[in-house]
Design a protein that fits this description.
Chain B: This is DUF1318 domain-containing protein. The structure holds 2 protein chains of 2 kinds. By secondary structure, chain A is an all-alpha fold. Helix content of chain A is 66%, strand content 0%. Chain B has one domain.
Chain lengths: 59, 137
């Protein structure tokens, strides 16, 4: 039992590390969208605290 | 068993840092702040031009003169200068966000993301460029 679990842990570890590498290669679209929204709200002076409000009108 | 727990601990640490890395882009550098404040100041002059249709939002994340006839002839030079200055700032903004996050090659993707969000967030009455040309929101 023990060797198998160790092997599984190693596998998930290497998968997690592969995930880290992936993040650095591919463009983080969701994060970019969040950043864009923040900057646009500031530049256009739209609802400054909308990000913290649920169900705020979308436009 | 101890080894497994250690492994799992490391895995969870890695996933935590992974989530952080994915959660946000750094947009708080001095260069970005400077561009933002320059753009907010200019927005006071641009807002009426968006509303009148003189200026519209392009699908590539920039601005364009949409209807020069909406402003008196004497002010057209100023209109063009405003649009050009805004486009310089926007290009610099996309580039700065990409470099601030260690990926200058992301500038194009950041530009596309902004292009979509500027148009989505534009209030009704503004002109925006879509796949089939200009439309009024």
């Amino acid at each position: 039992m023990k060797p198998v679990s160790t092997w599984a842990a190693m596998l998930s570890l290497s998968l997690a590390m592969a995930g880290c590498v992936t993040i650095n290669i591919y463009f983080p679209a969701a994060a970019a969208e969040k950043a864009a929204d923040r900057i646009i709200d500031e530049v256009w002076q739209l609802k400054p605290d909308a990000a913290t409000k649920e169900g705020a009108p979308s436009r | 068993m101890k080894t497994i727990w250690k492994m799992l601990f490391i895995v969870s640490l890695l996933s935590a840092s992974l989530a952080t890395a994915q959660g946000n882009l750094d947009v708080d550098t001095p260069a970005i702040s400077a561009i933002k404040s320059s753009m907010s100041q200019r927005h006071a002059q641009l807002a009426p031009l968006y509303a009148s249709g003189a200026v519209g939002l392009k699908s590539d994340g920039s601005l364009a003169v949409h209807d020069a006839n909406a402003v008196p002839l004497a002010q057209r030079g100023k209109l063009n200068a405003l649009v050009a200055a805004e486009n310089n700032d926007r290009t610099a903004l996309y580039r700065e966000i990409a470099t601030a996050n260690g990926h200058p090659e992301w500038a194009g993707d950041i530009r596309n993301t902004f292009a979509q969000r500027w148009i989505d967030k534009a209030p009704g009455g503004w002109w925006v460029e879509g796949s089939r040309g200009w439309t009024r929101k």
